[in-house]
Amino acid sequence: MADPPSSHQSDPGGKPIDYEDHLPLVPIHIVTHASQLPPEFLEPSLERQLVIGFDCEGVDLCRNGTLCIMQLAFPDAIYLVDAIQGGETLMKACKPALESSYITKVIHDCKRDSEALYYQFGIKLNNVVDTQIAYSMIEEQEGRARLSDDYISFVGLLGDPRYCGISYVEKQEVRVLLRQDPKFWTYRPLSEQMVRAAADDVRFLLAIYHKMMEKLNQRSLWYLAVRGALYCRCFCVSDDAYADWPSLPTVPDNLIVEGIAPEEEILSVLDVPPGKMGLVIGRRGASILAIKKSCNAEIFIGGNKGPADKVFIIGPVKQVRKAEAMLRGRMLEMY
């Protein structure tokens, strides 16, 4: 039998986030064996559906990096799943939950987390509510158009009084430490700072989720589900066109008016020939920014984390096709 999970009760005194003014403290458990996780998480079921806060930490988190910790926030506890100590056995035990439609994973910007889970552990992250997407949907729904590349950061989301209204100073401190030592998340045993920082990245997600759900209308909720699924697939390039991934959410009947449904959203992966990425991006990003402004679609480039030879486009079908045509046009231009 596995040892019980190591538990921490973080002390809010002197910390940048005043927990007591926002949420009651909950135990923080460090998990190295699957038996230390709640059974309803390990065995997803229709009868016991869950909503949890979710995040991952690691070294250069992507397909080629190292996923070190996976955070799970329940209403009554936070679990830090130690992927280094528990290894592949522990992560595989979490696979059914992470792929289940019965467990909603609330996360902020899931793309790289999903990529790391897919390439390092063969996990296809499913049924996410991405608070970065939800924030944009609410802004659009309330008539505030988002500018190209203007994505809300997690720190920015926490600072918004409509959702949380706190100052997350320690996040920046951890970022400085990561720049100084990229292996920060690999060290064991976990320091109090590591435990606190990992827990803080999921501690407020459920409260934010409930506030966002109150604001989103039915149309926005459907788009949120679809776009979240596409974000999960984004950097997980698949030779079979994602045939082995869970199906995208279907359009609810109440959104079909006189036989007309909302426009479908898709993910397109565009291959960029060697030496052409510079043309796509342009000087100081001018070309790619101009294309983003011309199309109602999101365009992502792998950058340093890769894949370096592909462009990912998410949005309504017509807008994605328009972006594809403009990007291909850029590739045909001469230096």
TrEMBL record:
Keywords attached to this entry: RNA-binding
All residue ranges annotated as the 3'-5' exonuclease domain in the record: 28-217
Superkingdom, taxonomy of origin: Eukaryota
Domain K Homology: start-end pairs: 264-332
InterPro entries for the chain: 3'-5'_exonuclease_dom (IPR002562), KH_dom (IPR004087), KH_dom_type_1 (IPR004088), KH_dom_type_1_sf (IPR036612), RNaseH-like_sf (IPR012337), RNaseH_sf (IPR036397)
PROSITE patterns in the cross-refs: KH_TYPE_1
One Gene Ontology term of the molecular function aspect: 3'-5' exonuclease activity
GO biological process: nucleobase-containing compound metabolic process
Pfam families recorded: DNA_pol_A_exo1 (PF01612), KH_1 (PF00013)
Segments traversing the membrane: none
CDD domains the UniProt entry points to: Egl_like_exo, KH-I
The protein's name: 3'-5' exonuclease domain-containing protein
Species of the source: Camellia sinensis
Upper taxonomic lineage: Eukaryota, Viridiplantae, Streptophyta, Embryophyta, Tracheophyta
